[in-house]
Structures are given as structure tokens and as C-alpha cells.
Amino acid sequence: LNMNEIAEKLNLTNGAITMHIKKLEECGIIEVSTATGKHGTQKICYFHEDKLIVDLKKEENEGNSYEVEINVGHYSSYQIFPTCGLATKDNIIGEVDEPRYFADPERINAGIIWFTKGFIEYRIPNYLKANQKLSEIQISIELGSEAPGFCDNWPSDIYFYLNEVELGYWTSPGDFGDSKGLFTPAWWFPNWNQYGLLKLLSINKYGTFIDGLKISDITLDDINLNYKSDLVLKLAVPEKAKNIGGLTIYGKNFGNYNQGIKARVLYEVMNVTVNDNT
Q1: What is the pLDDT of residues 204-232, one digit of tens each?
Q2: Angle, nearest 10°, between helix axes 3-10 and 14-26?
Q3: What are the φ and ψ backbone dihedral angles of 61, each rounded to 5 degrees?
Q4: In angstroms, rounded to a whole number, what is the distance separating the alpha carbons of residues 36 and 33?
């Protein structure tokens, strides 16, 4: 929109919005360019990001956290069914639609993984100490469905589990290929899927959430975690799903976000009582 259109939609004057536009541009949220219009030059404002999340909840124990990033090929277990495959930034690993190649040692370098149904698991490292308690786990991951070729309207119910406890599911709307992924390599087939949607899975004392929307009442207490616990994340398209439309996981060098599976672990430091009686 140009400045006049923004002012009209907000019912404000151009002068009132100029300062706000300048600040949004300075912090990289929008871009402003000059174009020729019917009445001379005009400033056109573009939204620079494709998603903006505003977290209104005050962060508890701010600073008590650690983050890790797991390559999408660094899975610990799987059971998948064709159509399926995996690829690095340079080539397909083995052959498509052949699950045996998911055991190939080169899988560790995979930047994209896809399958029609089944599951894949990742181990999140647990670095907590004895006097620390989990308060929230946040997982950021780019996901999509898996259709033959691609199909923007191809719903798939993707289920999430932590230590085999079902957290809930999110329905991916499609397997997107209408435009090339920002980081998808040039050799990737143009009639295949190109990018997914960046989703944020959160588990805390209030429940389980996708992008801030609650998908179940499962809390961390229901999983009974402590500093010695394994943290095994499972992504699945199970037989029970209403929409069995597959799963594509985008990692580095593929999709629109150029990231692996990012996990952030928040924790509380508990007071330890020392007994002086010996």
C-alpha cells in the first residue's frame, strides 16, 4: 500500500503515520520504495516478513534457557512408507520411494525429508542440572504435506509426540510448489514441493500450542520430565489420521527459512534445602 492508502485504512493523517512507518522500516519489518503514480511519485510500503508473532505473556525466568539446532537428517528412529525420500543440498540420497536409504550414513547431511505415512524421531539433548526444572519446550520447524509432485490443497494431519506422549496434531493445508523456495537449490525439480510453513510447537504448564493456539491440554507435568529424562520428539502421520497426506520436513538449504529443527528449553532454578544434621 502507499502512504495515502495506509492513512485511509487507519483513519489517520499522513503526518501521523510517517513516524511509525519510519520506525518499522528502520527495524526491518517493512520496506519502502518510491514508484511513479497518477499524481507524481509515491512511497509504497511492503511487509518484509511473512510472519510476525507478538508474545504478550511475560517470560518467566528470562535467561534460564538453552537452544540447540538439529539437522533434519539427524533422526534417531523412523518407520516410513512411500512416497518417500531424502536429499542433501547437492543430490538425492539413494533412490526415491525406497525406505532403505533412510539408513544411509549420508542422511546426516539431509536438508529435506518426505514420506506419506509413518513416523520419524529426534532426540533433543537434556542439559538440565539436578536443581533445575523444565518450564517450557519450544520447537521451531518448517513443515508441509507430501503429495505426488506438489499440491497446494493437500491436507495432512501431522501428529506430535514427546517421549511417546501424544501432544496433539496440526493439519498442514498442502504441499507447496507454486513458487521456488527461497533456499531450495537450483537443481531441485521444479514440479516437486518447494517450501513449507514455519510452525512453533510449545509445551508448558498450560498445555500444548501451535503458533500460540492450543491444540491439547497435555502439559509438561503429564510427561513427568526431570533432569535425567530423555527428550524424544516424534513427528508422525499415523494410520488413525483423518487426513493422511504425508509429511515433508524442510531443513537447511531447502524451503523458505534455511534452518534445521530449532529447540529451546526453558527451565526454573529450584531452591535446594541443605540439612545440617549429620
Answers
A1: 999 999 999 999 999 999 999 999 999 99
A2: 110
A3: 55, 50
A4: 10
